[in-house]
Amino acid sequence: MKTVSALALVIFFALVIQANALYSAAVLRFAAASREDYRERERVYAALDEIAEDFTTLLGESYDDYRSAALRSLASSYTGLSIEDAGGVKLDFCTDRVLSAPEFAPFFFASGSADAFIARRNAFGLTTDKEDWKALLTEDGYACASGYGWLGEGDEESFAARYLAVSHGAELFPVANRLSGVNVNTVNPKALYPIIASSKPPLVDGKTKARDLAAAAASGPVTKELLARVLDAEPDHEIFKALAVRTGFWKITLKVEGKRYTGTGIVAALPEKESDAVKEYRLIERRLVRAR
C-alpha cells in the first residue's frame, strides 16, 4: 500500500509539474503575442502620424481635388492607404433658417422637416458622428452629411456658435474660420442645389448654377475663380461660407494585407485666421479596427 501511495504521489507531482510547464508555456506565448500585438498597433499609429505630417504637400495648393498631382502622390506613397474627403454638410453647424429652408429640409430629413433634428441637437448638443443622425435623414441626406466641419466665420446666429461660446468664449477661432465651405470638387453633387437654394439673399436660377457646378467638378477641377464666376454672387454673400474649393477634413485609412489592424484617422486643415489659406494639417483623431 505504501508503494502504491508513493507511486501515486510521484504521478501526481509529475502531472503538476507538467501542468505548470504547459501553463508557463501558454503564458509565454500569450505574452509574446501581446507584445507583438502592441508593437503592431504602435506601428499603425506611427504610420498614421507620419501620413498626417505628409499632408504638408497640400499646403501650396489653391484647391483640393482627388485628381490633383499632390493628392495622388500622397495616396501612392503608402501601401494600403486611401484618402477621402471627410467633410460634407455639417448639419449641426447650420442655422435653423438653413435647416428649415423648403429646398433643404426635404432633401436631408426623412420627415421633410428639420424639427426633429433641431430638437435632438438642442437636447444633446453637437457631434462628430453622423450616425447619431442617421434615423432622421434621407438616404441622400445621410450620404451628403458629415460630422466634421468648420463653423462659418460670423455665424453668430447659429446654435453651434452659441453652444461653443460657452466653452470657447467669444473667440471661436479656429473652430469658426473662412474654410467652412463644402468642397464642390469632392461633395456629392446632389447636395449642391439644396445648399445654393437655402442661401440668402436668394441666388438667381439656383438649379442652373448647381448643374453647372456639378458639370465643372466632373470635368474639374473647380478653382476659387471658377466657383465665383458660376455662382455670380457678391464676394461677401453667405454662399461662400457654404461652398468652397478646399477640404477642411480628410479621412485616411491604412489597411495592409495580412496585418491585424486597419488604422483610420481624421486630418484637419487649419487655416490662417484672416483668410482661407491652410497653414497646417493636424491629425485630430485616430482609431484602430482589428480584423476578425
Please give the count of helices: 11
Q: Count of DSSP E strands?
A: 8
Fraction of residues in β-strands: 5-15%
Order of helices and strands: HHEHHHHEHEEHHHHEEEE
Mean residue pLDDT: 90
User: How are strands sequenced across the largest beta sheet?
Assistant: 1-6-7-8
Q: What Rg do the Cα atoms give?
A: 27 Å
How far apart the termini lie comes to 56 Å
- Range of helix content: 40-55%
Low-confidence stretches: none
Biggest sheet architecture:
4 strands, antiparallel
What does this structure look like?
This protein has 292 residues and is an alpha/beta fold. It has a domain at 2-58 and 251-290. Helices cover 43% and strands 15% of the residues. The strands form three sheets. The protein has a four-stranded antiparallel β-sheet, covered by helices on one side. The protein has a two-stranded parallel ribbon with strand order 2-3. The chain has a two-stranded parallel sheet with strand order 4-5. The mean pLDDT is 90.
Provide tags for this entry.
four-stranded antiparallel beta sheet; two-stranded parallel ribbon; 292 residues; single chain
